[in-house]
Amino acid sequence: MLTQSHISFIQQRIAKMLVMLSIFLLPGTLEAQTSMIMEDFESPDVQTRIQTLDSRFELVDHAGSRAVKVESGIDKPYPNIRVSAPATFWDITRFTRVEADVTNLGSTSLRMGMRLDNKGATGRKNSNTGGSTLAPGETATIGVDIDRIFATELRDSLKGMQATPWGIRGEWGGVIDPAKVEQINFFVSSPAEPYHFIIDNIRTTGVFNPETQRIPEPFFPFIDRFGQYVHSQWPGKVTDESQLREAAQREAQEVIQSPRPDSWTQYGGWKDGPLLPATGHFYPIKHEGKWHLVDPEGRLFFSMGMDVVKAGSSTVIDQGRDSWFKDAPWKSENPAMQEFIGTATPKRGDYKNLKVQTFDFYSANLLHKYGPDYRNLWLKNTPKRLMNWGFNTIGCWSDPEIIKQPGIPYTHWIFINSAKLPWQPGTRNRISDPWHEMFETEIRRRAGNMISTTVDDPWCIGYFLDNELSWGEETHLAHGLLKAPKDQPAKKQFIDWLRAKYDSIETLNRAWGTGHPSWQAMLEGNSEPKPAQAHDDLVAFNEVIVRQYFSVVRRILKELAPNKLYLGCRFAEHNPQVVKIAAEYCDVVSFNIYRETLLGWQPFPGFDKPVIVGEFHFGSTDRGVFGNGLRGTASTEESAQMLVRYVRSARDNPLVVGAHWFMLLDEPTSGRALDAENHGIGFLSITDTPHDAMIQATRSLAGEIYK
Asked: Fewest beta carbons within 10 Å, which of 67, 416, 539, 684?
């Protein structure tokens, strides 16, 4: 006899089948042959195949069928839910992508990661990762492209390149055997608050075509004399130097005909918008419930910026790479090509710490395009091109000479290179010890050098100091001091702070569960307390460290450049404790935010301070460059569409006052000498050719950004 639970299960199963049939059997589609349900959460044993980390789940009725509802925690860096295959593994060899339907139940935006795992998977090996960002209340499809094991020997031989024509090399990112997918991992990154969401309908899409992984014969050489990939074609690919000279003339006419959008002030502000007090400098204001920048003439200003505005990006040409290059320019009879040969010592990758020989294809192409005075012409023309494309700001990492050119606002960047706090696991960019005697000295020295010509310049918006520092969780910095050497200034401050709170070392020992014989022994030692007992003190002193860092930076910056904005440290992680303190000292708080949209985004609930996005992009691999950056798309046209969506969402977010694209140039196909990166994330190719879809997108945005 069927029980009520059996009847309910059958009804739910039929409902889901009807939903899936309505998707797969649309007239004129091939979906019936190109999709496979991997998990629909209807199976009686599904609950036994779900594992979590710092998350809770329950099976619920949703949209007429069963789904899994998840609440993430906030204690781990990557709270997740993992769904294992019903058998040993899923075989998805015939397909190109795995997708799932996700509903964001929260009131803030949700960045959801999704990962396909083989046995032994980590974020860097035996896995493929994807995901998407959902606005509050949004239901959307997220997915992961399948990057499969292929051409392993050839792929691994392409040293000095992160990505290849067949995907990321193993040491830079995961590849999988699609016949042996053991589990699917859904995760969020460093949440400031619990996220609530529903997952359903995990399925494959797309038919895998083995021809897409064909190896051209012969493969070598695969880079032409302009630095382009030999074995594919795309709009704008250069085949002759005359095309570069013709492009220079055409672009000069475009700039003359349309120097900037008609709706802009000379600074790129809203010419016909509200007139606010004009100070001769940029400043932030909250106007009608939304944060804005105001330009020197008193007009509202949204900073549409371009990062890394600089000419040149060299690639390695020795280290056994001689066979890679067809008609290598450095071997030509043109003596001018010798100017672009150089040396470098890479900081990361296969050639780390080796002295390598390099060639700068981009600058060589500029010589063909502009002639002997290419450097000065590039400096003169580039700001004009940016304004013509719809950009009104030169962003971080740009050529110091470019910001001296008239006609476009800019930001500047200062790196604080003084003694650091101790390294800890998970640390990428260490924070300077804010009590070290060289901390203030170094800020003054570097800031003085960089801002001496910008302090009174109305075109200068302000300054970033540092970039993507590893702040960690709420006790991270203070905890690291416990194992620091005795001469670490911050550790001495920590001991003094504890002595002021506890009347004796014995009192501290009782509170922390430790056995330090004296304060001096604690200073000289490296033992750790019981985490729960020391937690409150670690949190409190962590805040002291953060406050010392930001307060000293602000004090010096305002002393040297009182009319310029302190734009923060370009957060890549969102520790609410740190962000809250930063907001007290920064005029504008900066975040590098690589996600699809900023609708509903905020660092934490209740945050009310202007935000500038220091970096974002959407890369593609359809222009002869093999990596697609931190947020990839299927084509340049799709990247342009995602750019429009992102900037519109930034404009509509009440906190955001600007967004800066990373970066101007595509990276070299054969890998950047510095670190082997080779991503198609620029507005310009290595031949200085604009990607038309991208500039058309930003031109259209420029005309609507103030509407």
From this structure: 539
